[in-house]
Specification:
187 residues; Immunoglobulin-like; alpha+beta; 4-stranded antiparallel beta sheet; single chain
Length: 187
Amino acid sequence: MAHSSNVITHGMSGMVGDTIVFRQVGGKTVVAAAPKPTTKDPSVLQQQQRLKFQEAIIYGKRAMADPSKKAAYEASAKESESAFNVAVADLLNAPDIESIDISAYKGKTGDKISITAIDDFAVTDVFVSIYNADGSLVEEGPAVLGDDGIRWQYTAIVNNDSLTDDKIIIKAGDLAGNLSQKEQPLV
């Protein structure tokens, strides 16, 4: 891929013959080799990826029609990318729950659980559920985002005397509606 900055190709877009493609990226003309056509049927994974990309394009268009989402994505867009592209990428990338720190949780009201969750755009919410060994719910609720913008903190609201074989499930969501989940034992 090369950048072109002459009078003849300025602002040009489209395919020339079957060899090169011109397109506009960040106000610059980019020249690249033409894609090679494929004759074989797409695999199941390729079909799934195409569907996911179609969903991302539809989401991007809807996000640009929503003034608050558009403003959020515009504020995050770097110089050479559009708010639409940021929105598309946001749908394609679910949040990642990096870590769950349960070292301060001893099963008492007021104990803290710290969660580190990241996203290519922003994690909008983190939800914590604690279950007993028999699968019954001990407690659940939203975590609160810390000042660093990455770590979320949950404060226990129920005494939990039996921590043996208990588990915690963390769910993290983003603006595009993606939801990630991570589970780990409490001990």
